[in-house]
Amino acid sequence: MREYETTFIIQPELSDEGVAQMCARFEEVLEKSGASKLFYDDMGKRRLAYPIKKFQKGQYLTIFFLDEGKASSELERAMRLDDSVLRFLTVLGNPNVADVEARKAEAAELERIRAEKAAERAQREAEEAARAVEEEAERRAALEAQSKQAAAEAAAEASASDAAGDAGAASDAGAASDAGAASDAGAASDAGAAS
Question: Looking at the chain, which terminus has fewer C-beta neighbours within 10 angstroms, N or C?
């Protein structure tokens, strides 16, 4: 019995349910071909080195399975027909697996550990997302407070300049009328002295 690894890249916007359905289809292909699935390794979404079918990112998955060599071609055929699969590659992991049951037990333990790590990662990502939302809300509140404060300062400055402008205009008008009265009186006294 040989151990194979098939790594494939799928479209990044595929939902978790869609990924699960796809993996179930691939497992069915393996079962029909007489292979036995060991486990999946979900490496997550990564940036691609170059665009594939206009996608910049892809979700990387690896399926490990035991087979005599017949199932890999059927699995690759199924992947080729699935539009969600961007790329795939099958390699021979171990050419001679002596104790199949021990390898299956080891794979089950690895899958359990990976599931725990995936749950921890999902929880950590959820906490980070919640923290990011909270920080964004705080940032928006701070910006809003700054804009309100700036508007209040501008309004206060405008009302102060209007008040100063009204007082200045009144004093200018008063000074002009005083100067006009004084010049009228001076002109009248000059006219009286001249006659």
Answer: C
